[in-house]
Structures are given as structure tokens and as C-alpha cells.
Amino acid sequence: MVHPSDPRQPNGGAEQFGETQVGVPYFNTAGVPQQPAQPGYPQPQYSQPQYGQPQYSQTQQPAPQQPAPQPQYGQPQYGQQPFGAPQQPGGPQFQQPPFHQGPFPPGQYGPFPYGPPPKKSRKPLIFGLISILAVAAIVATVMVMAPWKSTPEEKTLSFALGDGVSVQVRLPAGWDAQSDTEDGKTLIRIHEDGDDRILTQLSDNLRSLSKTGSGTAMHTIVMFSDKCTTSPSGQDWSTKNRDDSSTKHTERWLYASSKVDDRRCINLSAVDSAADSVTAGSTARKTLQKLIDEDRVTASKSV
Question: Is 214:273 a contact under the CB 8 Å cutoff?
Fold first, then answer.
């Protein structure tokens, strides 16, 4: 084996090129055996890191990007873009449509602003009804009072009775008189206005009240001429009361008689009758008393 420093081998021995003999140890100048060198491959070079910014010998990593600026949300300016979405910086600007799509402005229900339609007040209707009732009451009062009608006045009527006797009667207001007949005799029926029942009807009604207590009230005066049965007193009229009431009805009479001459007398009979005494009252009897007290009946006989 040739030492590399051997002057006789300036280019070195074969072992310098990796051809050392197998099993022959290689000694350095100190006599220490060494491992044979590996084939000649270049060793990688590593640079020492510098403190501060990191240095990379092979691939440099990209620098981190700064975050994109966030959109700034401001208060909506009234009259410009109410309720619109925030605009993106750098991008196209879109006009947001308003939220309402119908024909009415926002916050309204139909054609009525600010909520449902208001309820109609009933005051005009109430006042109208009150006015109508008031007018109706006035009309009814006027119709009842009937100021254009004349106040009932007294009537003076004349009638011819049998045997040449004639009579004249001045009736109070509200009363009337008609001529009637019964058993062939002429009689005068004096009654309240509106009671047009003839004597036969009045007689049937009186019998019904007497027997069954059913019937309508009656206030009637009958005047007739007849023979005098008693001699009248010195007064012009003689009177007599009679009560034919029963448990079923009330029937009260007032008789009055006056002489026409020595043989003939004028007679009046008044009756108040009804199913009860309150309804029967005394209207007819009071009217008869008025006739004789005020000399409203005048009788005469032809010669």
C-alpha cells in the first residue's frame, strides 16, 4: 500500500480513489485505523439560520394576506335608501326594492291609514231615532187635540111624541139624541156620542148583564110621554132612584117625571149598568139630573 504522501506516488495510490484492499486496514499518520471513506458524493450544505425574519434555503412560504376590509354599516339616511341592504365595497351597487309590493304604503291596512277602519259612531243614528220619535209624539198630540176641530157644543133638538105632545131638549156637550120606537110607541133615546145602539140592542145587553154578568157597559136615557100615574108634587120634576143590581152585575136607575097637562106627563129614565159597579159608574144619572136641574127639557101639548 502506497501512502498518499509518498513522493514516489504524486498522484496518490489506488486506495485514494476508493480502491483500498479488502481487509487491509487503513492507518492515518498517527497509526490509528480509520474507516475507509465513502465514495465521493458531495455532502449537502446547510446554512445557519439568522434570527429575525425566517430565511428558507429552499422554498419561501407566501406572506399572509391582510384581511379584507369589513363593510361599515351606518345609520340609514331617511329619504335615500330606507331599509336597504349594506353595499359591498368595490362591487356593483344594487337598489333594493321597498318591502311593500301592494298599492298601499307601508304600515297601512288597505285604504285606511294606521290600522283597521274606525268604527262608525252610533250617535247620529240615535239622534235620528230620537228626532223621529219626538216628531211622531208631536203629530200624535196634535191629532188627538185636533185644534182645527170645533169644541163639542151643546145641541138643542126637538121631537114629536104621541098624543100631540112635543118636546125640546138642550143636550150637554158629548151627548146626542135620536127618535126610536118600542111596542109601537115613539121614544127618544139620549146617549153618549159614538154609542149608536138602538133600544132593542140595549135591552138585550141589559138582560145579558142581569142573567150572566156578560155584556158591555151602558149609559142611556130614554124619554117618552105617558099618562100620569101619580099626581106630581108642587115641584116641576119628581125623581126616584132604583137599584136592580145583582151578584153578577150592577144596574142603577134614576126616574124623573113632569106634568104636561092634567092627563099627560113627560118621563125620563136613566140607567148605568155594567158587570161591576166601577165600570157602571153614574154617567147617565148625572146627565139626567143636569137636564132637570137646568131646565133643559121643555114639553108642550097641542090643543
Answer: no
CATH code of the domain containing 259: 2.60.120
Residue 186 cell numbers, joined: 115613539
Grid cell locating 225: 110621554
Per-residue pLDDT, averaged over 162-172, amounts to 91
Q: Is residue 118 part of a domain?
A: no
Higher local confidence (pLDDT), 86 or 248: 248
Residue type, 154: E
Query: 107: which DSSP letter?
Result: T
Give the pLDDT confidence of 209-225 residue by residue, as tens digits: 999 999 999 999 999 99
Helix then strand then coil, % of the chain, to nearest 5:
20, 25, 55
Asked whether the predicted pLDDT for residue 179 surpasses 70, the reply is yes
pLDDT band for 178, please (50, 70, 90 cuts). very high
Q: What is the mean pLDDT of residues 195-219?
A: 94
User: What one-character-per-residue DSSP string does 131-194 give?
Assistant: HHHHHHHHHHHHHHH-TTSPPP--EEEEEE-GGGEEEEEEEPTTEEEEEEEETTEEEEEEEETT
Strand, helix or coil at 257? strand
Could you tell me if residue 191 is inside a domain? yes
Residue given cell 116641576 in the structure block: 236
The grid coordinates of residue 36 equal 475507509
> Within a domain: residue 294?
yes
Strands of the 155-160 sheet, one edge to the other: 155-160, 165-171, 297-301
Tally the domains of the chain: 1
Place of cell 111624541: 161
For 100, the grid coordinates are 311593500
pTM above 0.85, yes or no: no
Domain membership of residue 239 as a residue range: 155-228+235-301
Taking the C-alpha atoms of residue 216 and residue 206, their distance in angstroms, rounded to an integer, is 9
Q: Report whether 265 contacts 226 (CB < 8 A).
A: yes
Do the domain assignments include residue 70?
A: no
